[in-house]
Amino acid sequence: MAVFQLLLGLGANALLILSVFLFIAFLLYCLYIKYMHMKYDHIPGPPRDSFIFGHSATLSRIMKSGGNVHEKFLEWSETYGPVYRINGLHLVTVCVTCPEATKEILMSPKYPKDKFVYNRLFGLFGRRFFGLGLITAQNHELWYKQRRIMDPAFSSLYLRGLMGIFNERAEKLMDKLTEFADNKTEANMLHLLNCVTLDVIAKVAFGMDLDLLQKSSPFPKAIELCLKGMVYYARDLFFEYNPKNRRFVKDVREACDLLRTTGAQVIQKRKTAMQNGEDVPKDILTQIIKTAATEENMTKEDEEFMLDNFVTFFIAGQETTANQLGFCVMALGRHPEILEKVRKEVDDVIGMKQDISYDDLGKLVYLSQVLKETLRIYPTAPGTSRQIEEDMVIDGVHIPGGISCMLKLTFDSYVTGRMERFFKDPLKFDPDRFHPDAPKPYYCYYPFALGPRSCLGQNFAQMEAKVVMAKLLQRFDFTLVPGQTFDIQDTGTLRPKSGVICYIKHRK
């Protein structure tokens, strides 16, 4: 502002000089965009909406109308092939569905996560958000150090010890569903599942008793705001500068502050208790602090990483699992023959038992198939992206190496999971695709990503999902309330748009 006041004081000549300077800068930027077009336009792709903004207008329209951008990516993949290009300003995105390239790039540590996307997840509208936690760390050494600290907290031996909490929190959901069954009222299953999965991750990971099915809490709303803000912040560079979005941006910042402040308090309280020799829960936070203490050269930044990972697990540890369970209930409600088959398996394995054991989970084979098929059609975290610094050829298409973060390769499991090329009759919900004797999908099914950067908590999530679904199938009949949509809501993660509204009845 002071610069403009000075220029105004200097008079018309200064304004003329400034205008010429801005025009030259704009012209040079347009030349740079033209250079990027010339470099990558040999790659197939849809016509651009505009020279400068590329395909941004198309994607923005879909977002503003509440649509699912991954459906557009699927359409473009079917039209332009396994390698196609999207433009936005000077940035180029190459979308890849070729299994061989998926294997080579995602399974190797030499291709870092895309700087543009994951830098945008570092913070939200000026607030540190995921920071440099496990999801967003791009430097391999930085990521590997954190992964080494986290691994013991997700070992199979440790996860076995969590079955008691999984059962306890799932029982609270069953008690809540009993109220809906007795009162003959409609149940918003997605909301209830969000409550139970957040209860689980809060208790299992951080020793927090939220009891969201009985008590109100600011955390669910804060998480919803952060996820919604994350989508706009990552996909719309100009969103925060629009005056009509100021209130929303302020709310997102406050939500982000709440999560990080809570995380700092929980971590400090636990560390103090451990230093004083007090009894502490044997949860994931304790494991992380103990393991971190054995690391050499722990720095203040490492402490910040622990807070980054608090936010990461607090959000990712509940959001994607709740959405998977919601989609699973929705799919079973639409396919009564599959519902009956999986219910019979639960009856055979679990019977009338209240507590489900770790060994029981391994016997629920068809339920595993149902959950996997759910993630094929409805992957809750559908995409990941990588950078390439050197030229490479994918499916016969030459991809020039990127300059800084101007080029990224994206891999979308929503797209590959719905392509006839990989799955016959792809929109049919068919758990037998994942029968133990069925051929395994070849690098076209990756709901938890692949390789060294695959989701650390995937076994945790699927154990939790099995316990919740097994208890639900054991105790209740559910039918979908007529008239609701089965559309998908894109909030960065994918979730059932209508919330999966059900009538609940006690099983006879």
Automatic annotation (TrEMBL):
| InterPro entries the record matches | CYP46A1, Cyt_P450, Cyt_P450_E_grp-I, Cyt_P450_sf
**Reaction it catalyzes:** (24S)-hydroxycholesterol + reduced [NADPH--hemoprotein reductase] + O2 = 24S,25-dihydroxycholesterol + oxidized [NADPH--hemoprotein reductase] + H2O + H(+); desmosterol + reduced [NADPH--hemoprotein reductase] + O2 = (24S)-25-epoxycholesterol + oxidized [NADPH--hemoprotein reductase] + H2O + H(+); cholesterol + reduced [NADPH--hemoprotein reductase] + O2 = (24S)-hydroxycholesterol + oxidized [NADPH--hemoprotein reductase] + H2O + H(+); testosterone + reduced [NADPH--hemoprotein reductase] + O2 = 2-hydroxytestosterone + oxidized [NADPH--hemoprotein reductase] + H2O + H(+)
One family name in Pfam for this protein: p450
In the bilayer, the protein is annotated as: Single-pass membrane protein
UniProt keyword terms in alphabetical order: Cell projection, Cholesterol metabolism, Endoplasmic reticulum, Heme, Iron, Lipid metabolism, Membrane, Metal-binding, Microsome, Monooxygenase, Oxidoreductase, Steroid metabolism, Sterol metabolism, Synapse, Transmembrane, Transmembrane helix
A biological process term (GO) from this entry: cholesterol catabolic process
Q: Which residues cross the membrane?
A: 6-32
Pathway, according to UniProt? Steroid metabolism; cholesterol degradation; Lipid metabolism; C21-steroid hormone metabolism
Q: Cross-referenced Gene3D superfamilies, in alphabetical order? A: Cytochrome P450
Q: Which cofactor does it need?
A: heme
EC number(s) of the enzyme? 1.14.14.25
Predominant location: other
Q: Carries keyword Oxidoreductase?
A: yes
The GO terms describing molecular function are:
cholesterol 24-hydroxylase activity; heme binding; iron ion binding
Protein location: Cell projection, Dendrite; Endoplasmic reticulum membrane; Microsome membrane; Postsynapse
Instruction: Quote the cellular component terms of the Gene Ontology held in the record.
Output: dendrite; endoplasmic reticulum membrane; postsynapse; presynapse
Q: What class of enzyme is it?
A: oxidoreductase
Q: Where does heme bind?
A: 455
The family annotation for this protein states:
Belongs to the cytochrome P450 family.
PANTHER family for this protein = CYP46A1 PROTEIN-RELATED, CYTOCHROME P450 FAMILY 46 SUBFAMILY A
What exactly does this protein do?
P450 monooxygenase that plays a major role in cholesterol homeostasis in the brain. By promoting constant cholesterol elimination in neurons, may activate the mevalonate pathway and coordinate the synthesis of new cholesterol and nonsterol isoprenoids involved in synaptic activity and learning.
* Name of this protein: Cholesterol 24-hydroxylase
Which species is this record about?
Kryptolebias marmoratus
